[in-house]
């Protein structure tokens, strides 16, 4: 074989390889227009304010600590993991006198340990809530005794203004939850003139829903064949039963329709595993909590991301993910993209470092984290303590940037995805070649870095977060969460996603 012929063969091979690489890099989605159309509805951060304005507004949400005279001592802020794992008997009684002392204890702890104290109204709002609880306690007690269940209901009623997915007393949360309500009664399509359907064989355009712009209520959904379709639906605060709405079509035609809540059952699943379905890697992860029994699996989850870089498509299943430490979410993204990114999320953040907040968080770390992780966190917190000013660390503003990644990632989410798992979703939303399938997440990322303490008389456990974080619009999305690009009931998400991948990737 002569040199010229060898050269021609070599050139041909190079051209073929370049073509293959080009296809892999630029044509992973079979219909680029559909992909762009789907993700265009994704509510990416829209920063209308300057960095200076955002930081100024954020600072106004932080409580100004002038003194610490009525702060509880560290010795009073106790926590027993053993007691926490046992349910408090709500039918047991508590003396009214002890309940009144405990309420004072609770509100002092909230003032000095809760990052959302000022955001939810500060001294004025919390003092008013305390006075109302004290009043009803004195009115409701019989023979100087009160059922703990009744006592807890009183507290919950008057702290209902705390829209925070991380704040809990006992097993009672105060965050109102929002679910997706929809109907497939109408089959919609879209053209240059708008969204339409056929009624009695005639084409009608949808003009308004509930008197509002129709497009707000038309969402992308996925069927059992992996086909994308337009679905009539809306997010609403969870209620019993269905929601009735009015539809307005052209020609003054009106219709009433009932929207049903999307089902989203909690999935037990594997804490971590990788398997293949139809040659598509499926990565399941349900926790990022580095407890002694889980930390090795989490480290494996992070390390295995390096093996996925060259995959054409993969499915990341984080349905019913219960959170943990967001540090591992960032490390997973770094390993997948091979990018030394600090953060690709966009947010503004600070950490409460009062003695109360530090002790509460120390309680949590010592009870639940593996020894290695506990030492790492405590060391970093000691550094933060040095630079803190009057209770707060300096504000961190992450502008973020888009990150390129090679695999096309289908992420499965549901309403049980919470906390650090939502941090992972936030990172993934800033990556190329990512699409989300399922339902809205829990919405528990206004606050974080949870601390724990047991109330001295009822023995109820209080979970109080000490970090405060917003996206640049400074909107609280707790209870709402991140929305999927394609809506589908949680239990069907994996099956439908496989079909979707077959058709489009």
Mean pLDDT, to the nearest integer, reads 87
CATH topology of the largest domain: 2-enoyl-CoA Hydratase, Chain A, domain 1
Helix content: 25-40%
How many independent structural domains? Answer: 3
CATH architect. name of the largest domain: Alpha-Beta Complex
Unreliable residue stretches: 1-27
Helical element count?
Answer: 13
**Helix- and strand-based class?**
alpha+beta
Shape: globular
CATH class of the largest domain: Alpha Beta
Q: How many DSSP-defined strands? A: 22
* Largest beta-sheet details: 6 strands, antiparallel
The radius of gyration is 26 Å
> Distance N terminus to C terminus?
40 Å
CATH superfamily of the largest domain: 2-enoyl-CoA Hydratase, Chain A, domain 1
Provide a descriptive summary of the structure in words.
This protein has 3 domains: 95 residues, no CATH class; 84 residues, no CATH class; 239 residues, 2-enoyl-CoA Hydratase, Chain A, domain 1 (Alpha-Beta Complex), CATH 3.90.226. The strands form 4 sheets. Strands 3, 4, 16, 17, 20 and 21 form a 6-stranded antiparallel sheet that branches. Strands 13-14-15-18-19-22 form a 6-stranded mixed sheet. It contains 13 helices and 22 strands. The longest helix has 24 residues. With 505 residues, the protein is an alpha+beta fold.
